[in-house]
Write a structure and sequence with these properties.
3 domains; 258 residues; 27% strand; 5-stranded mixed beta sheet; 4-stranded antiparallel beta sheet
C-alpha cells in the first residue's frame, strides 16, 4: 500500500509538471503567433475617412547595423489588407535597401476612396529622406493601380484623406507593450494624438518650417555618390569616392585577366 501510494503521488507530480510544460508551450505558441518568429506581426483596426473600418495586418523584422545598446533598424516590413467588398488581398512591402542600411519608410496612413487605395509613408531617417527627394511635408504617397503601388505627388492625394490611422513611431515595441494581436482604432487614434510633430498627427498640405522640432525636414542635405553619402558640394568626398571606385574597378579588371 505504501509503495502504491508513493507511485500514485509520483504520477500526480509528473502529471502536474507535464501540465505546466503544456501551459508554457501554449503561452509561447500564442506569443509566437502574435509577434511572429524572427519578426513581429500584428493587426490594426484602421479607421477610414468615411467612418468605415478595415483590418490591416502588419509585419516587421529588424536587422542590420546598429549602435551598441540599441535595437537594429527595420530590415523588412509589410502591410496587407482585403479590399472591402471583395476577396482581393493588397500587399505593400518595404525591403532592405543597401544605400540606407535598412528599410525605407514608416507607414502613417492607409485609406480608400471609391476603388482606389492610398498609402502615406514617411522616410525613415535622414538617409532615406535624402534618397526620396527631401519631400516637404515629409511624406511619400503611393496609390495602388494596376496591381502595383505607384508613387504620386502629394497634390494627387484626395483632400478628404487627411488623418493618419496607423501606428507610426516604433510600432513593434508599442504593440508589444499593449500586448494585443488586434489594436482597436480608438487606441491607434490615442497614440497618434500624442505625437509631438504636427505633420505626424495630420496630413499637412503646406511645407513644414525648417527648424521645427524633431522634423525630418531638418536633415542635412546629402547625395548618394559611388556608394557613399556626401554633401552635394563636397568635392573632397567625391574625389575620395572616385579614387575608391577606380581602385575597385582596377582590381576587378586584374582578376578578370587572370
Amino acid at each position: 500500500m505504501r509503495l502504491e501510494a508513493m507511485t500514485t503521488k509520483k504520477r500526480v507530480s509528473l502529471i502536474n509538471i507535464f501540465g505546466v510544460f503544456l501551459m508554457m508551450g501554449a503561452s509561447v505558441g500564442a506569443q509566437a503567433g502574435l509577434f511572429g518568429i524572427g519578426g513581429v506581426s500584428w493587426k490594426e483596426e484602421v479607421l477610414l475617412h468615411d467612418g468605415s473600418k478595415i483590418v490591416v495586418e502588419r509585419k516587421v523584422e529588424r536587422g542590420g547595423r546598429h549602435e551598441i545598446g540599441q535595437q537594429p533598424p527595420y530590415k523588412v516590413q509589410s502591410l496587407s489588407f482585403t479590399f472591402p467588398g471583395t476577396t482581393q488581398e493588397i500587399v505593400w512591402e518595404d525591403n532592405f535597401s543597401e544605400d540606407v542600411g535598412s528599410a525605407n519608410f514608416l507607414p502613417m496612413l492607409l485609406d480608400i476612396r471609391n476603388t482606389t487605395s492610398y498609402l502615406v509613408v514617411s522616410p525613415m531617417g535622414c538617409l532615406s529622406y535624402n534618397k526620396w527627394g527631401r519631400p516637404n511635408p515629409p511624406y511619400v504617397v503611393f496609390r495602388y493601380q494596376g496591381k502595383e503601388w505607384q508613387r504620386i505627388p502629394l497634390q494627387e492625394l484626395p483632400a478628404d484623406i487627411r488623418s493618419p490611422n496607423l501606428i507610426f513611431s516604433d510600432p513593434d515595441n508599442v504593440v508589444k507593450k499593449i500586448g494585443k494581436g488586434l489594436i482597436p482604432a480608438d487606441t491607434i487614434q490615442q497614440i497618434i494624438s500624442r505625437y509631438r510633430q504636427p505633420e505626424y498627427r495630420s496630413i499637412l498640405r503646406e511645407p513644414v518650417k525648417i527648424g521645427s522640432e524633431g522634423s525630418a525636414v531638418n536633415c542635412e542635405e546629402l547625395v548618394y555618390y559611388h556608394g557613399a553619402w556626401v554633401g552635394p558640394g563636397d568635392s573632397v568626398g567625391k574625389r575620395m569616392m572616385d579614387r575608391k571606385l577606380k581602385v575597385r574597378n582596377s582590381g576587378d579588371k586584374t582578376n578578370s585577366d587572370k
